[in-house]
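Section 3.1: Structural characterization of target chains.
Under the original work plan, the team committed to producing a structural model for every single-chain target entering the pipeline before any wet-lab resources were allocated. The record below documents one such target. The sequence was received from the expression subgroup and is listed exactly as submitted; it comprises 152 residues.
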Amino acid sequence: MSLFPDVALLAERVADSKLPALSGSLCFWGHWFGKPNENPCTLISVSFNESNAELRIKFSGNELLSVFEPEKISIENGHVIIYQATKIRIEWPDIGKDGRLKNRMFYEFQRIGKKITGNSNIHWSSIDQTNLSVNRPAVLMTNSLSWPESKK
């Protein structure tokens, strides 16, 4: 993790069992994953692959977040913030009415210049793309509805 020291600090914080677990709602470049404060995710592990600069974050609800080329990671005032990335992919289980795993659903967001594009294996057109902005953090995990100050 030497090329990405912020990733190492996040991994150390997650591994420290003396501190409370990091938990909150997720937001990607302004798009909330579910409704704010109604779908809290609890971070359980962090790994990093230097060959493709992929930060993988696992959550207690079997969600998996992949953040490519993460930059400027901070943990402050109840927020976990990744200010910049080139691509983000969130996957989560699609559980049928019978309680069995049917599929893994995903959203994928990619930063191309000053625009965020994406795709999904569910209805991408259902995403309110007007909220997507490169001026917002690539990833925000928060228990608050206030936006943290930007550190571009």
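The first helix runs from residue 5 to 15.
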